[in-house]
Amino acid sequence: MTEVSVLLEQRNRQLEAIFRITSALYRRARGPFTAQELDEMLKETLRVGLEVVNADAGTLYLYNPDRDTLVFKYVIGEKADELTGMEIPASKGVAGEVFRTGEPKISADVRREAAHMREVGEKIGYITRNMITVPLKDVDGNSLGVLQALNKRDSDFDEHDMEVLAVMGVSAATALEMMRLQEERRLATIARLLGNISHDLKNLLTPVLTTAMTLSLLYQPVKEGLSRLTEDQGVIPPELAQDIETFDGFFKEAMEMIQDSSTHIQERVREIADAVKGVIAPPHFEPTDLRELSGKVLHHLKPVADREGVTLRLEADEKMPLVPADAKRLYNALYNLVNNAIPETPAGGSVTIRLAFKEGESFPDDGYAKIEVADTGKGIPPEVKAVLFTDKAISTKPGGTGLGTRIVKNVVDVHKGRILVDSEVGVGTTITILLPLQQPSANNKADT
């Protein structure tokens, strides 16, 4: 076979591979794109790309903006199991260089590449001789990740290989972009529905609040009349007077709970809509008593816990300082955590909010407040825990959306805090929120 024939055959294989991937992508574009189908599409793109350029191994990295890292999302080769899920800084390695510059690169001899991260190969016992790296870009030219092929078997990588992998990279980026746009359309629809729900809830709650206010106005003169009768000795028996006093306390508490709950319902729907849209309004920080706030959360959820046979507890450091916080947001976060923990805790168990603080620690320099929500429940499976409080959070409840965890994460983020999860299946879960004792002055001026 002549050299020209070999080149033509190679070119035909390349064109056939490109046709296969683009055809599959076109078919998927005509209907809904599931996360599983996206995974399969990206894996197939990597597999076909490596097959055509005759590479020994390869990786499709995806960018994680939360940690500014490149994740080994899909790996093919003998060390795939060890590498999948590993992360490297987005500023490091040849992959990081291509990700930042957006320019493809052929590394004929990695020993001459100053940026090459040799420690990765040394860690898993894999020697890289040569490689080719191409960027994955969205329609606006933003880098989504990179595709990398390692160790061409029969020769060195060339410009033809780069062209093929570049097309594969475009296909992978297009699939990612399709999924993103589909998700945006879905979330926009949900946001509109939530807007309508919020409006309907407001209309439904208006008569409840109006009735509560009217009842309070009507009860006030009755209460005053009963008080005058009580003062007249013998008119009302002492035991009845005691019952009236007990009812008066309950009535006041019930009216406050109706008004507070109605307000929280409307705020919660608004917050869910913001979480769906990815909108985080500027926080309004003010000195907040975490004991009072936590007590309020537990008080409002006590009827729910009582029905489930679960005990609610509050344990707080007596010297707990006031913490700069957006009280409404923090209330919703704690409400979410406790409300989610109750149904996961068997009857006879407990859900506890623990409050403590440390001063002068490294997070931040002026110390932090620690809020723990601990339950004696079922625990969280490892696969759920791995994505908890991320955009990929999933719900294990029938009909659940995972939005609750996203709301909690948003609250922690606006407070410049951290969230930690410690869970053991069959034992229980402790979710810890760390909040700074001091907020940047710029944030303190929000909403003023």
Describe the protein in words:
This protein has 448 residues and is of the alpha+beta class. Helix content is 52%, strand content 19%. The protein has three domains: 3-183, 2-Layer Sandwich (Beta-Lactamase); 187-277; 286-444, Histidine kinase-like ATPase, C-terminal domain (Heat Shock Protein 90), CATH 3.30.565. The strands form three sheets. Strands 3-2-1-6-5-4 form a six-stranded antiparallel beta sheet, with helices on both faces. The protein has a five-stranded mixed beta sheet with strand order 8-10-11-13-12, covered by helices on one side. Mean pLDDT is 80; it is low at 442-448.
Can you tell me the overall shape? elongated
Can you name the CATH architecture of the largest domain?
A: 2-Layer Sandwich
Estimate the mean pLDDT confidence: 80
Uncertain spans, ≥5 residues at pLDDT below 50? 442-448
Secondary structure layout:
Layout (H helix, E strand, L loop, with lengths): L2 H27 L5 H19 L1 E10 L4 E8 L3 H4 L3 E3 L3 H9 L3 E3 L10 H7 L6 E7 L5 E10 L6 H73 L6 H40 L8 E3 L1 H19 L2 E6 L6 E3 L1 H15 L8 E9 L9 E8 L6 H4 L17 H12 L3 E7 L3 E9 L4 H4 L4
Parallel strand pairs: 8-10
Antiparallel strand pairs: 1-2, 1-6, 2-3, 4-5, 5-6, 7-9, 10-11, 11-13, 12-13
Helix pairs in contact: 1-2, 1-6, 2-6, 6-7, 7-11, 8-9, 9-11
